[in-house]
Amino acid sequence: MKKLAASLILATLFTAAHAEPKHPAWSRSANVYEVNPRQFSKEGTLNAVAASLPRLKQMGVDIVWLMPIHPIGQKNHKGTLGSYYAVQDYTAVNPDYGSVDDLRKLVKQAHALGMHVILDWVGNHTAWDNPWVTQHPDWFKKNDKGEIYSVTFKNEAGGTEEWSDVVGLDYDNKELWKGMTNAMAFWVKDAGIDGFRADAAGMVPTAFWDQARAQLDKIKPVFMLAEADDPALHDKAFDASYDWPLNGIMKKIGKGEAGAAELRDYVTNPPKAFPRDAFRLQFTNNHDINSWEGADKDLYGPAWGAMTVLSYTLPGIPLIYNGQESRLDKKLEFFEKDPIDWKNYELEGFFAGLNALKKQNPALWSGTAGGAVQLLDVGNPQVFAFKRQQGANHVRVIVNPTAQPQKYKVPGEPGQSTLKPWRWRIIVPE
């Protein structure tokens, strides 16, 4: 795989002042594949997901992230089927998806294939009809009248946002810490899962996650992914966190509003300083982006391939959202049944190639196992180029994030070359 694709980039001007969690060895060269069980198949079951594990393995998938598998609350639920993130019971499986035993079998099969499984965990809130509401009302936030109320908060735009189908948990109560940690430990012990993706992780005290990770690691080494962008979460609790700023640049490139200059600026002047060994989740899409913002074609147009290459070659751990390998071209309904049209898996080979590229080149591994980003001067400021090196292994990436052909000159190569609009080149040693 000499030439494949080029891409974006993550800052390596990180600080490593804290004692970070010990990443599971298998996560260093890994990718993540997000599964929406409801929409993954017409059946919408865990068994249907399990049936596709051999295909995912062949595509090079390492970590399977299952969106929440728990029963969904009925009180104040949204749409016909409700939100996956309105958890009615933390230690049960949604009967629409199957049983706890079905999950055990799925995890066992994944492990036999050399894959790992993480569960989506909703630690900030529960459904209105979660048993904890009546059994432990002191575990929930109250309004001025002393009543449990729906989750309400100030969003980034400065407005007030309300999630009417869920109620907020009160982490001032340390008994809640025990109950939540025990619920998480149940799945590690009983089903053998390998970690969690923590929903709205920044809305839960970091100290809770710190102690939860310590308790879970006593059972087995786990992998923890935070839906957040806070360096402090990497101190003790989380292996990986969302790189939303980089994804924002990708979207602007897709609209023609940004390019190589913004990528270089992100590398040299990152918005936040993360520990050098922090994994940043890189993505072009996920369940939130797809359902509320759009499919890849809507967000990136012809730039999507280059942006995906960037998500694999810049520092971090890359994410595939289910359906992207079949060029998912619509928003999947969030509260209704809306199965993916798998067509002919048109992009399966593309993702297989990127997964292999990352695994075969230590320079592209995550955290300190991979190489830092070194920007390259290729004689054209419209072209984004960088190199990553780990030991003898090095990878060079050249990307044209514009709608026009661009000439460039790679140091050590005779003459100029040309990249077509939105194309890339990846150079690896023979």
TrEMBL record:
Annotated ranges, domain Glycosyl hydrolase family 13 catalytic: 34-358
Record organism: Duganella margarita
Lineage: Bacteria, Pseudomonadati, Pseudomonadota, Betaproteobacteria, Burkholderiales
Keyword field: Signal
Protein name: Alpha-amylase
Signal peptide: 1-19
Keyword Signal (UniProt): yes
Pfam families linked: Alpha-amylase
InterPro entries, sorted: GH, GH13_cat_dom
